[in-house]
Amino acid sequence: MNTPATLPIEGLETVYDALAQAIDQAGPDKTELFLVKLALLNAQALADAGLFQQHLRAALQDL
């Protein structure tokens, strides 16, 4: 059985920084639209609706 690839902490930090900059660039009036577009692009890249739904549930935890 293959273990899914994971992003190391340094990669997560890079992604976090890029996301924060992109949210700032989108501006407060377009942040929600930007995040929806980003989520849909990532769902398409995952090519697995079930996995995407798992990610949604995980992201909703502890908000």
Q: Terminal Cα separation, in Å?
A: 33 Å
Number of strands: 0
Q: Report the total helices.
A: 3
CA radius of gyration is: 13 Å
Assembly state of the chains shown: single chain
Largest sheet: none
What level of helicity do the residues show? Answer: over 70%
Order of helices and strands: HHH
> What class, by secondary structure content?
mainly alpha
Shape: globular
How much β-strand is present in the residues?
under 5%
Low-confidence stretches: none
Average residue pLDDT: 94
Structure description:
With 63 residues, the protein is mainly alpha-helical. Helix content is 73%, strand content 0%. It has helices spanning 9-26, 31-46, 49-60. The longest helix has 18 residues, at 9-26. The chain is globular, with a radius of gyration of 13 Å. The model has no long low-confidence stretch (mean pLDDT 94).
Notable characteristics:
63 residues; mainly alpha; 3 helices; 73% helix; globular
What's the topology here?
Layout: H1 9-26, H2 31-46, H3 49-60
Summary of the model, kept short:
The chain is mainly α and 63 residues long.
